[in-house]
TrEMBL record:
This is Methylthioribose-1-phosphate isomerase. Its EC number is 5.3.1.23. Keywords: Amino-acid biosynthesis, Isomerase, Methionine biosynthesis. One of its GO terms (molecular function) is S-methyl-5-thioribose-1-phosphate isomerase activity. Signal peptide: none annotated. HAMAP family: Salvage_MtnA. It holds the Pfam family IF-2B. Transmembrane segments: none annotated. The keyword Isomerase applies.
């Protein structure tokens, strides 16, 4: 996707052919800064510090982390895969990508691992971009149908499930981009998404760069707009979907799904195949929820009047803060899933019909 006329993917190989380039998402939207990652340690740091984030993207970046490590330590495959797998616990895409690399590389002689790892990482990245484009195609009819009825579509989204969270196009935002490009009058309510503000900072930045009309709202405002008929559809991304269709996503998603159910607003979840975890049934009980630093709740970062990034405290000094980064929306609150293979019910039967090859 484009920023100021330049086409970017959210990751790419450097001209040297082996190190990885990413956009530092902790600096967006204030600064567009490209980072070069040239060691597995730097890759791990980029994931834990959220210079890269979003379930599909961290999977692709971790795959390149393995490839970079294979240059100097191909005999260390098991250790590198296990270690990168610890960087973030909730999104299954990370483990999916690492398992794919491990399955491909483990049977090979060590001398062949580097080249095979780069090829596999590139395949994961290309597959993600194409998958997300297809998610957009399968989500588009939902928006077309509303536009045909009402002349205009108001979508509410939470967190950032756009191209910055994937390799390209995004998941939840992909149908929105396709609708906008097709001339549909679409407007997006962007939840700010405290504590890290991925909505206010990243989704708003992406939509703005593409010219999509949008309004950033406080996380607590969505229910109000739903009660007043101002939201036609919710579309969110996800970090893990279980066999029965429970959905883990950024903290606050569950409350939006509850408000949507109470107001009969359709609540759709967009996901690539790499986000499915058919080994898990009950998302609330079984999906590990990342607990992040309390400092993300107590402090906010933004530019001061001189444009310098500054942190300010927004909570009473001395108060404790807790920071679960994700929550789980039970399948019963999900209208349906939008995938690269089409749309389905959030249920064992719905998922099994679209993904017979993934059945647990
Ligand atoms: O903590 P983050 O920013 O990595 O969380 C991202 C989300 O929750 C996204 O909604 C999810 O990864 C889907 S991205 C296509």
């Amino acid at each position: 996707m484009k920023i100021n006329g330049t086409y970017y993917r959210s990751l790419w190989l450097d001209d040297d052919g082996w190190s990885l380039r990413i956009l530092d998402q902790t600096l967006l939207p204030w600064r567009v800064e490209v980072l070069r990652l040239s060691s597995a340690e730097q890759v791990a740091h980029a994931i834990t510090s959220m210079q890269v984030r979003g379930a599909p993207l961290i999977g692709a970046v971790a795959a390149y982390g393995v490839a970079i490590a294979m240059r100097s330590a191909p005999q260390d495959l098991d250790r590198i895969v296990a270690w990168l797998g610890e960087t973030r616990p909730t999104a299954i895409n990370l483990r999916w990508a690492l398992a794919r690399l491990h399955a491909r590389l483990a049977p090979l002689p060590v001398a062949e691992r580097e080249a095979a790892a780069y090829a596999e990482a590139a395949a994961i990245a290309d597959d993600d971009a194409e998958t997300c484009r297809l998610i957009g195609q399968h989500g588009l009819p939902l928006l077309q149908e509303i536009a045909a009825r009402k002349g205009r579509v108001n979508v509410l989204t939470h967190c950032n499930a756009g191209w910055l969270a994937t390799v390209d196009y995004g998941t939840a935002l992909s149908p929105i981009y396709q609708a906008f490009d097709a001339g549909i009058d679409v407007h997006v309510w962007v939840d700010e998404t405290r504590p890290r503000n991925q909505g206010a900072a990243l989704t708003a930045f992406e939509l703005g760069a593409h010219g999509v009309p949008h309004t950033v709202i406080a996380d607590n405002a969505g229910g109000h707009y739903m009660q007043h008929g101002e939201v036609d559809i919710c579309i969110v991304g996800t970090d893990r979907v279980t066999r029965r269709g429970d959905v883990a996503n950024k903290i606050g998603t569950y409350l939006k799904a509850l408000a949507a159910a109470d107001n009969e607003v359709p609540f759709w979840v967009a996901l690539p195949h790499s986000t499915l975890d058919m080994q898990v049934d009950d998302g609330v009980k079984e999906i590990p929820i990342e607990e992040r630093s309390a400092a993300e709740v107590t402090h906010l970062t933004g530019p001061d009047d001189a444009g310098k990034l500054t942190r300010i405290q927004v909570t009473a000094p001395g108060s404790r803060a807790a920071n679960p980064a994700f929550d789980v929306t039970p399948a019963r609150l999900v209208t349906g899933l939008i995938t690269e293979r089409g749309r389905c019910e959030a249920s064992p039967a719905g998922l099994a019909a679209l993904y017979p090859d993934k059945a647990a």
